[in-house]
Each structure stands twice: as structure tokens, then as C-alpha cells.
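Continued from yesterday's entry.
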Amino acid sequence: MKMISFSLVILTCFVSANCIMWTLEPNSQKCLREELQQNIPVIGEFEVSEASGQTVDYVVTDSKGHILAKRQGISKGKFSFNTESYDTYEICFVSHVPQNFKGIAQEVSLVTKHGIETKNYDTLGEAAQLKPIEVELKRLEDLSNAIVQDFAIMRKREEEMRDTNESTNSRVLYFSVFSMCCLLGLATWQVLYLRTYFKAKKLIE
């Protein structure tokens, strides 16, 4: 049991929830961006401090501007969505203050979870009538699979970057050789042209 708990602590270091808090100035916008893989469930829980006469909206979009979640006049709540493709996703909180109204800064807290962190293992264990140790093993298995997938993605990216670097190096080499050939050809043409010119002027034989 101690070994399982120790392994869970190590794996949790790789997969964890993101919690952030900031101050949202009146009539301003604060956005958070994160790159996510395809078909990843994402849930978020937010809370905005109250300010008389002011409202705060949130909107979740991808890099193409598609709206995945949106709500106006928020104070406290949750949102959820599934990623459609590998992309950069953005969560924006926007403050609105009426004209001729002196606004104040509001505190915003946001907790986001994605992937296996969105699963409620207690509920799954109760539904499947699993023992606590079996629930921990299930969680451990999912964490291990998630880490393996992350490493596979990282390896794929590394291979793509290596291929890009090798391709760039080859193109730079070919361009350098082409440039040298052009310079040598131009220098040879200049020598021949000047020789012909000086001969025409009878400056050399």
C-alpha cells in the first residue's frame, strides 16, 4: 500500500490541476492560453469577487475563434468542454463597467483540470463496487497511461523538430553551395569581361 501511495505521489507530479488567481482591472480583459491534444475533456471552476454595478463575462475559444463555452454576468460556477483537435485554447475573463461609474478591481480565481484529472474516481468506484485499493490501482493505471501518452507525444514532437532542423541544415548547405557557385561564376565573368575590355583598349596584349 505504501508503494502504491508513493507511486501515486510521483505520477501526480506529472498530471495535476492548474489553479490561478489574479486581479481583474475595470474594463479590462485577462486571457489564459494552453496547448491541448485532441479529444481531451476540460473542466474549470471559477469565482469572481462581487463589485456593485460591474459584470464579468468569460469565453473559451480555440485559435480559430470557435466559441467552446461562454457565459455573461458570472460570479461563481463551472464550465466544461472537449477539445476538437490539437490546438491552443484560450480562456478570457472580461470586465464591464458602466459609463460614468468608477469601477474597482475584482479578484478572479480559476481552477482547471483536463484529461484524467476530470474523472471522479470515488463515483466510479461506487458505481463499479470497487474496493479502495482497486480504485487507487485504477487511478494509478490511468495516470501511467497518460504519462506514456505524454512521452509519446513529446517524442513525436522531438522527431518532428529534428527532421525540421535536418531539412533546414540541408537547405542552408545547398543555398551556400549555390551562392558560392554564383560568386565564382560572377568573379570569372568579371575577369573575362575586364580582360576583353583592356584588350579592346589595347592596354594589355
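--- second protein ---
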Amino acid sequence: MKTMFAALAATLLATGASADLMKPAAPIVVRGTITAVDPTGALSVKSNDGTPLTVVLAPGAKFAALSKIGLDDIKANSFIGTAAKPGKNGVLEATEVHVFAESMRGLGEGHRAWDQGPTSTMTNGNVGKVGTIRHHSGRTLTVDYKGGTQEVVVPANTPIVSFVEGSAAQLVPGAHIFAFTMRTPDGKLATNQVAVGLKGVVPPM
């Protein structure tokens, strides 16, 4: 599984794509819903802002499937990624959390800018401590990574997902996807890694 997910995990937890997708241009993030699948594997996607897109799957593309989980599934020693923004007193407040399989531990570790606003960040690290928030409105997580630590507040309504191994068979009309892509000469978008939500799950990252 580590080989299967390595490129995708590093992509989700950094703001770039794998080396081959970084050249010659920066990646384009696609968040949207599949509307059709071409026999060649090309995906017709309606982006979250309503823009119709065509996403071509590169040979050997990898897939991850996302399942919804709850706050109680985040344990001390879980390896997670969380997009967040500064909240009260500057403490980070999670906008989503994704929990990785044990085989993916250490991938993309760190704290960096994210693309969901000028103050948005992505933190990838090990949960060293699980705390509480008054009135049972969520949890506080201490997330440790090489070179630093972040305290992150996770409100009770925060989308939380886990990663499992996926397949191309899960790319069907109606499925929600997240992918880093590059623009091809004919104007289409190409990707070698796709995260797809299972049972209607919308990738929250």
C-alpha cells in the first residue's frame, strides 16, 4: 500500500504534485464530481465551481478511496493531515482531517501553506496528544512533525475521512474526486493520482 499511495499522499500534504507533474508547470487542483467516463479512461468532471473539465488518467495512475469516519477514530499516534485556518487566539482550527493508513506514516510530513485561502495551512504529522474542548464541541490535537508542533482545534462538525486503497472501478458518474493535474497541449488536464469519495463522500481537503 505504501508504494500505491506514496505519490498521492505526498501531493495531498504538500502543495505540489509529484516531480513529473511539476514540469513544466505548477499543478492545477481539481475538486469536483464525475459526470461521465470515456472508454479511454478520460473523466468528464464538473468542478465544485461549476466549470466542466476533462481529466485524462495517465498510464499507471494510482487511486485512493476516502471513507467517512468520526472524531473518535482519531487516536493518539494516528498519522494525519489537516487543512486549517487560524481561529481564536491564533490557534489553528481544522477545516478537514484525513487519517492515513499506518503504511503511509511519515509521507509529506510538515506544516505548509494550502490553497483554501490566504491563511490556510496543511499540517501532516503524528497525533501526540488528544485533548478536549469545553462543552464537548470537538477535540484539540497536538500534531508533531519533524521540526515543529501545531495545536489544532477540530470542531465537532469538521469533515473527517480515512484513506483506503482505491481502484479505477470507483471512478463512476456521481463520484466526487480530488486530483492534482497538469495542462496538456490540447487543453485537457492530466493526472497520475486521484482520490475518490466512497458512498457519496466529498473529498474535504
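The longest helix spans residues 2-13. Residues 1-24 have pLDDT under 50 and may be disordered. Will compare against the first tomorrow.
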